[in-house]
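Repro:
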Amino acid sequence: EWTRQVNEQLNQLLQWQQRVNERLAEIAEWQRQVNEQLNQLLQWQQRVNERLAEIAEWQHQTNEQMRQILERLSEMIRWQQEMVKWQERTVEWQQRADRDFAKLKGSDREWYYRLRAAAVFGIFVLNGRDPTNEVMRKLHEAVKAGVITRSELKAVRDADCLWLGEYEGKPVLLVVEASYTVTHEDLVRAVHRAEIARKIGYCAVPVVGGAEVSDEIWEQGRLLNAIVMKDGETDFDFAEQILSQAVQQTSS
């Protein structure tokens, strides 16, 4: 009986030992799986670190590229600002050159009528001469007498050319405005200055002349009773009509 009990206990012990061995084997397998997962986790961590390093490098490169882009953009803005300044200076220079050239062309026309006055106006009036000194003396006398204002004196003084001659035996003063391109303002100035000259006793006729004269200016000249000339040429019949009317009005 005792032997049987011992054998049973041995069998139980062997069974327990077998279960322990199985559990140990399971633990070993679990440990192996855990180790594999740890290895995979470490590999994943390494890959993550590599990706983070790549991202950091990419970020660094991106920042450098962005810095270069901003520098180029800043340079482009400065260049654009310089271009704007250069364009402004160019426009200003062009405008100044245009004004200077316009003045030069206008001065050329003024000298044309002054230097060739005897020939140009000789087709209208005879025995012509430059009456500037005489006209200025009469203007000053008229200012003192209160007949005209000092601004009116300056207006006649600023005429491009004054030419005194005879038409049908009567003295006629031509008050001339000369421009390269004749404008409405030239006509108005000539008419206004001729009106002032009439106040001081002259039979004055307004004249405008230039190299470029539009059809509109020719028509306005007729309406304002002003002689219009282009490079010394004019509508001779209409000019004689204006001169004849001026002489008749002065005589009456």
